[in-house]
Amino acid sequence: MTTTPVVAIDGPAGSGKSTIAKLLAERLNWSFLDTGAMYRAVTALALRQGIEPQDTLAIAAVAANARIETIPFISINDLDVTIEIRQPAVNHAVSIIAANPMVRAAMVERQREWSVRQPVGTVVEGRDIGTVVFPDALLKVFLTASVEERSRRRGDETAASIQRRDDIDSNRDHSPLRADAGAVVIDTTDKDIASVIEEIVQCLNLR
Ligand code: CDP
Asked: Region entry Disordered: which residue ranges (predicted)?
């Protein structure tokens, strides 16, 4: 599927994915992709356009036609949505929109295209990276943490909102959140960032 080496990092909200994936990419000098930001960007644009998250065809059209950039900031169709995508309205709608198989197909295609264009390797974080997007990833990591710790880390989002997203993400029909059989599962509840990165680097060195 791709010849660019990929480290896939999946897990629920607040498990440490974004921070760890970003720092790992810096350490390896590899490119980094936050796929959650892509689903959030589609959600932000759909909400701006007054489209209901349940309107699957209209949302699919937004996703299919969107130009999304995640570096240096998050934009969709040249609109900077970096701040907007963290708003409660987006937290509330994103999991419904991400459960739409047409939206997923459009995002997965972009993620694969992006990856093969990277010069060295990529660290990609999300919910379905090891299971669906890059099943041949060099290394698959699934990060977890207790619900209490995850909501403590995500001070900007209520525990109820995180729990609701987790439920929708884990129980959807298409590409649900789950650890791939080949993933290294790391519980980050009582671990600091540096030690988790060390653990991942050790696993990579063994590949
Ligand atoms: O940062 P946090 O873990 O809270 O969420 P995110 O990575 O920004 O993802 C936001 C939402 O996008 C998730 O709750 C999922 O509904 C969806 N998502 C997905 O379905 N597949 C991905 N690969 C990444 C995110």
From this structure: 153-175
